[in-house]
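Both lines are given unchanged directly below:

***
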Amino acid sequence: MNLPNKITVLRVCLIPIFVIIMVAPFDWGTINLLSAEMPVTHFVAALIFIVASATDWVDGHYARKLNLVTNLGKFLDPLADKLLVSAAFIILVELGFAPSWMIIVIISREFAVTGLRAILAASEGEVVAAAMLGKIKTWTQIVAIALLLLHNFPFGEGGFPLGMIALWVALFFTVWSGWDYFYKNRHIFVNSK
């Protein structure tokens, strides 16, 4: 396994640590970042989420720089993103920080595109790498999640709703990129018998 794929696997390994810190009944007190007050566990989990998310850029950078792009990496990288983002979104719903209907739309798109990618891999014999619109979608989701995990940092829960605005932006790019992916690969449905 090459270095970029090892970094991707590290991202997957950080997911259960993030989840445990977010949902286990630890009481490490609270922290106040500007006007955003939150449990220390949310702050620590948010940092783990941000570090795990940053590995998405790192593995892609090294895969391209060292010419180590592989089909395994093309498969693992978006899967790791989807696992991390889905876990975070589900926790945000559980905590009441995000509306469930928005998260259902986002996660449904992820399942649908993953299914289409599997069909494309089976029928055309190659794993399709993520397009630019999909990468924008992922990063808007990561920003929204980070802001919500950090209790709408820097404005706090009663201030300007930056976290929710970021979530709406993420929802927009999620739906748009999903539509774009299906539209560009519509031949699968037209030519299927």
In short: The longest helix spans residues 40-65. The helical segments are 3-23, 40-65, 71-94, 100-124, 132-149, 162-184, 187-190. The mean pLDDT is 90. The chain has one domain: 3-190.
